[in-house]
Amino acid sequence: MDRIQTRGNIPLCGEVIIQGSKNAALPLMAAAVLHRGTTVLHRCPQILDVEYMSEILRGLGCMVRREGGTLIIDARELSAFCVAPQFATMLRASVLLMGSLLGRCGCARLPYPGGCTIGQRPIDLHLQVFERLGAVVCPEEKGIGVYADTQLQGCNLQLAFPSVGATENAILGAVLAKGTTVLEGCATEPEIAELCRFLNQKGARIEGIGRRRLTITGVTCLQDSQYTLMPDRIVAGTYLLAAAGTRGNISVRGICPGHLGALTAVLQKTGAEVKILRDAICMNAGEAHLPVPSVQTEPYPGFPTDLQSQLMVFLTGADGESRIEERLFESRFLIAEELRKMGAEIAVDGQSAVIKGKNRLKGGIVRAQELRGGAALVAAGLMAEGETVILGSHFIKRGYEDICRDLSGLGADIKEL
Ligand code: UD1
Fold first, then answer.
1. Which mutation among 28, 164, 298 tests ligand 1's pocket best, with the greatest number of atoms within 8 A of CB?
2. Measured from the CB, is residue 163 less than 6 Å from ligand 1?
3. Other C-beta atoms within 10 Å of 411: how many?
4. What is the pLDDT of residues 2-42, one digit of tens each?
5. Residue with CA at minimum distance from ligand 1 atom 29
6. Tally of domains in the chain
7. pTM of the predicted model as reported, rounded to 2 decimal places
8. 300 and 218, same structural domain?
9. Least buried of 247, 333, 355, 374, by fewest C-beta within 10 Å?
């Protein structure tokens, strides 16, 4: 049961309601550790990364249970500050426990975080943040320890690059620190604003939400809360691109359309008709399928790196040549090789990929090697002639609740094997 089979060449049509956001759920789960009490997260996606994070929290002494779409975390009995490697090495977001454990206990020990195989993913910026807040960083054989003798101390901090994780760790470290932290050069991804809103609802004092400069005034404790997670913009974008590739006509519902501005701009350039509603995007790809001369991935609000593979798949069907430049991760063209097996013409040169469109993909056996690339291969299968088998579907389950359910609801011929 680690495979997905598709039969392609059917335009996707209809409506799909989008799950809660993975990249919002994981930092909120880490943040729950800061509070000696209960956190209730509604619309928490039922995905593997949330399960791994739940196991990590249980290993630290928290009680975590699920009731349908709701996750309940009780961190009163937190009894450890050392994160075991079993699950931590499976997801990148485990590194966020450094900020929250440091804030709650004054120390944290973690193995090097895992996550997708999309190149080197250093954590130097995270560690600089902790040092500026007054902690000592001790590299260990298989991980890192961070320790603070006294309460963390608010400070002025400038991030050299708007790293999502480093911004989140800085927020988590500063919420219970003494005094005020001014954080400049922050990432502005919607998931960071979500973390700030969640923490403020718990009694934190964060100002400047959504901007490059955040001011965090330390508080002594947080309170119990219930929070409904934002929809997953990357899942929504995946389905829009998959539908565009099949020349379909779909609506993604229950979303924040503003979070997908960079994608809708690209879709419009390709000739798709895009209608933006208050909480939905309706897209009719029609027959036009123009190439895109140049797209760069960039920090928000630029085009998201997490939709780059799905875009590449879509562009294999465009009427001409497109170029993608990947500016965030250095090895994020892993699917190019798999797509070539399906007949795509893609030339990769360092951080650039040139995609010669108009070759209809042919079904085949391909292998997912990471989460978003895996979802992109499913989209490729839906565009291709004949049958495609995507191996390694467990990668996709890290971030998609049930990609087969969602896509078959849009008329796709898809099943898990
Ligand atoms: C988060 C997202 C991931 C998304 C990425 C970029 C989560 C759980 N993951 O990952 O899905 O692809 O944002 O939008 O939210 N960097 C350093 N040093 C550091 C930290 C980062 O050099 O200390 C570099 C990274 O190697 C990478 C770039 O900065 O090249 C972006 O990384 P970052 O924004 O930190 O992404 P993540 O938080 O890991």
1. 164
2. yes
3. 17
4. 999 999 989 999 999 999 999 999 999 999 999 999 999 99
5. 163
6. 2
7. 0.97
8. no
9. 247
